[in-house]
């Protein structure tokens, strides 16, 4: 299959870019050929979005709502096609692919509901005066999406930005561009006006930088690595434009001694190995209180050995391929460093092609790279804590602060400790991998700036304007 750009309501071949091969990470075969934008196409997309944004901002909320609901219906009706794309270009296992496709429907429907809830405030500050705080769209928003949840994380940006009255230019990840095409198909099928949504696949240098640096783009919404996000923040700040950044994580799960070990194993296993651990909120550090440490280590390693590694299209596959071979090499290096410093490799640590075996290390300590570096693969570290306070200290001993878990039967203690855990999200008695289209998803420290989901996204994609109305003669000093 060959896929085109989507600019100003039309499917177009690239002229100044090139046609790229979209590879299947399972076997490195060509999944699709995709037109990548060049400079002229990026300019055309931004110009189209700029022309369209004022009419779209003035479009009645009910009309915006219907377009997003129709796009959700398209996603629902084409669920199998969308899931096949996710399995084919991102290596998503069968269950993950259908989960993501279903979540995309939910995001669009949630965003549709937000169209009617772009709320402001009315205040009476002075006699004879009405003071209004209006929440208004920014203008043109650019979105830069990652490869791991290429549909879901792109739509979180697109759908809520459109609901708030902005127009949009999307650059999907270079490794997963067809997921962006699915969004364009859904919105096109829903009757989105020309220029309101534009799709420009391409490289970060050719497309991403142009979007970030163009003054007509009033906000950049990004999900990806902390290194890239830091660069985006610097460039966007220099131009006084808004940005939201959802970046890396080295997410801890704390297991206290009073919690059921077998249940903890299942919670930790899902958090560690869902989508091969290629999730910003995957569980990569298991901090276990000393009295249950040995028992948990043995049980968790045994559970990891049961994970089926293989063809993403098979329903019982848990571990599919990593996105590229270079990621396997990064994990190899981290494991070698940890073992050389005293960690014990309990299972895994090998790969064939892009398929990495689920890997468990115990006795990991803060001097090891794997304690603080993202792995983005099916590998997790077990760390011993002497007590709950020590566990929280180890939890916070990291540059990241995205998601975290705390497993204990003492909910009073859990609520108290959760306030001390340096993370944007704390899940008590559940996995670090958790999401919902209405919540405030995001991190602290080097994990990001801003929040995604429901009304919190509307806050991100709008700006405030103060308007006063003097309905009696103003009392002026001169």
UniProtKB/TrEMBL annotation:
Q: Would you say which domain of life the source belongs to?
A: Bacteria
Catalytic activity reads: salicylaldehyde + NAD(+) + H2O = salicylate + NADH + 2 H(+)
Which keywords does UniProt give here? Aromatic hydrocarbons catabolism, NAD, Oxidoreductase
Enzyme Commission number: 1.2.1.65
Q: Name one Pfam family in it.
A: Aldedh
So, what pathway does this thing act in?
Answer: Aromatic compound metabolism; naphthalene degradation
Domain Aldehyde dehydrogenase, by residue range, is 20-467
InterPro entries the UniProt entry points to: Ald_DH/histidinol_DH (IPR016161), Ald_DH_C (IPR016163), Ald_DH_CS_CYS (IPR016160), Ald_DH_CS_GLU (IPR029510), Ald_DH_N (IPR016162), Aldehyde_DH_dom (IPR015590)
User: What top-level class of enzyme does the UniProt entry assign?
Assistant: oxidoreductase
Coiled-coil positions are none
The UniProt entry, under PROSITE patterns, shows: ALDEHYDE_DEHYDR_CYS, ALDEHYDE_DEHYDR_GLU
According to the UniProt entry, its GO molecular function terms are:
salicylaldehyde dehydrogenase (NAD+) activity
Bilayer-crossing regions: none
Active site residues according to the UniProt entry: 246
Q: From the UniProt annotation, give the residues forming the signal peptide.
A: none
| The family this protein is said to belong to | Belongs to the aldehyde dehydrogenase family.
PANTHER family found in the cross-reference section? BENZALDEHYDE DEHYDROGENASE YFMT
What is this protein's record name?
Salicylaldehyde dehydrogenase
Task: Tell me which species this is from.
Answer: Enterocloster bolteae 90A9
């Amino acid at each position: 299959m060959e896929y085109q750009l989507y600019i100003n309501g039309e499917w177009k071949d690239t002229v100044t870019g090139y046609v790229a091969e979209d590879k299947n990470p399972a076997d490195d075969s060509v999944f699709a050929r995709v037109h990548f934008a060049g400079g002229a196409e990026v300019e055309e997309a931004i110009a189209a979005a700029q022309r369209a944004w004022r009419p779209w901002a003035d479009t009645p909320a009910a009309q915006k709502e219907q377009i997003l609901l129709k796009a959700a219906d398209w996603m629902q009706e084409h669920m199998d096609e969308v899931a096949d794309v996710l399995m084919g270009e991102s290596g998503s296992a069968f269950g993950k692919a259908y989960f993501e496709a279903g979540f995309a429907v939910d995001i669009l429907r949630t965003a549709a509901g937000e169209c009617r809830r772009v709320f402001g405030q009315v205040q009476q500050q002075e006699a004879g005066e009405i003071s209004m705080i209006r929440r208004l769209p920014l203008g043109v928003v650019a979105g830069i999406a990652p490869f791991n949840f290429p549909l879901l994380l792109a739509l979180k940006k697109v759908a809520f930005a459109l609901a708030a009255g902005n127009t949009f230019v999307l650059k999907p990840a270079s490794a997963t561009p067809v997921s962006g095409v699915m969004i364009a198909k859904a919105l096109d099928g829903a009757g989105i006006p020309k220029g309101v949504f534009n799709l420009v696949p391409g490289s970060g240098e050719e497309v991403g930088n142009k979007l970030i640096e163009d003054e007509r783009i009033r906000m950049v919404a990004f999900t990806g690595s902390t290194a890239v996000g830091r660069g985006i923040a610097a460039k966007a700040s220099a131009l006084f434009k808004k940005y939201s950044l959802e970046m890396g994580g080295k997410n801890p799960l704390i297991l206290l001694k009073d919690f059921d070990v077998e249940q903890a194993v299942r919670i930790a296993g899902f958090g560690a190995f869902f989508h091969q651990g290629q999730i910003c909120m995957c569980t990569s550090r298991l901090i276990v209180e000393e009295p249950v440490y040995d028992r948990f280590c043995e049980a968790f390693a045994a559970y990891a050995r049961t994970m089926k590694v293989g063809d993403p299209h098979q329903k019982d596959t848990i571990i599919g391929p990593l996105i590229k071979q270079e990621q396997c090499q990064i994990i190899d290096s981290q494991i070698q460093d940890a073992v050389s410093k005293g960690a014990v490799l309990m299972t895994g640590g090998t790969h064939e092609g892009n398929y990495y075996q689920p890997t468990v290390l115990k006795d990991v300590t803060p001097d090891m790279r794997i304690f603080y570096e993202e792995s983005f693969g099916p590998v997790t570290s077990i760390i011993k804590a002497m007590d709950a306070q020590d566990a929280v200290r180890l939890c916070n001993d990291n540059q990241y602060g995205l998601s975290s878990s705390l497993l204990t039967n003492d909910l009073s203690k859990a609520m108290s400790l959760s306030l001390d855990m340096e993370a944007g999200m704390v899940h008590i008695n559940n996995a670090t991998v958790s999401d919902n289209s209405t919540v405030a998803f995001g991190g602290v420290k080097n994990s990001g700036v801003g929040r995604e989901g429901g009304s919190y996204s509307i806050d991100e994609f709008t700006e405030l304007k103060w308007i006063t109305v003097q309905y009696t003669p103003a009392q002026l000093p001169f």
